[in-house]
Amino acid sequence: MDRSSAIRAAVRANGDDAVQLSEKLFDYAELPYHELKSSKAMAELLEKAGFEVEYPFFQEELGYGSAYRATLKNGEGPKVAFLAEYDALPGIGHGCGHNLHGPLSVLAGLAMAKLTDRFSGTVQVIGTPAEEENGAKIPMASAGIFDDLDLAVMMHSWSGGISQPDMDVLSLRCYVVEFYGREAHAVAGPWMGASALAAARKFLDLVDARRECFTRDVRFNAILQEGGKAPNIIPGYAKIRLEFRTDSRGKLEEMDRIVRACADGAALAMDCRVTFTPGLLDFDDMVRVKSLEAEVSRLLEENGEKAGEVLPASGSSDLGNVSYRCPAIQPLISIADQPYALHTEQLRDATRLPKAHQAMEHGACVLAELAMQVLDDADFRAAVRNDFQQALNVKSRRLI
After folding, report:
1. Average pLDDT of the residues in 86-115
2. Residues 84 and 120 in one domain
3. Which residue, 278, 295, 318, sits at the end of a domain?
4. pTM of the entire predicted model
5. Deepest in the core among 28, 82, 183, 343, taking most CB within 10 A?
6. Rounded CA gap, 303 and 127, in Å?
7. pLDDT at 250
């Protein structure tokens, strides 16, 4: 039996377990930081298949115990990891499809455990919770968890009948920006005040004035969370929550400088003081690896999925942080022919249909075969590493 056929047979042999796991996660619908039943179900299935499981994993650093790492060491050689997500959204449950593509990664790992006569090296399945909040991949990446990998890979649920070989994403930084002025009566003694609200408004005006000089990838969004107590009182305090996104780490730092300069200028002009507090951990953009994307396109087609082009980056993911540490890729697997937006009830319900379960098997075959190629083919592995390093070098430039 050739390698592709053996992988498909191994995936099919574990398909029912993966579907049952997906249904469990759907019913649990656990929110970020609290995915204890979901992670335990995944970890137990992998342990039963012969993986050495660390659970909970990275608990002290994360501050919660719903991450895991399952390791299958099969001789000396390269090292690959399938990453699994499993947190749900408030109100609508698994509207992002984590109950489907988390088990997809587990299914790929289970298949590899049946194919140990065909590769030498280490396979991991790493459970990465809280993707919808401060994604666990971010502190894991900072701590070097992915540094020794030759490949980190996962798939993300998608729809519309056409899968994508990769998911491009933008860097994201979030701040709570607070302006402090002086309260005064707006009629009896306004000259005694310093309007924090006016400083906040002028800050946003200054950022808007800079927009015409931004590169096209830059996104800046903000809301005013507090702006005063009553109209007859000059506000002494105002609070803004903002996010900005770019297509590289270098640009993110330059945007940070610009945003702070605008805030400092507005505060200075209005006799106010301003502070910045991080609202989230930083999400990195995606370091795309051409050789991985080309191979995933081929494998998607071979496994019965239509493969389209990579779509322009429009959101953020903690997989981007992984992509700065090792070759990484996150294809999008279509689980429904109808186009459903992410974070919707329609996508949530589609994860339970036969079409989605079939896509899960196809996707697991793609991940397992990609991992097998990285483990077994030294030339392919070298090409991947070279493409990764070149893309990383480009991302380091500051081009805003």
Report:
1. 98
2. yes
3. 278
4. 0.92
5. 82
6. 25
7. 87
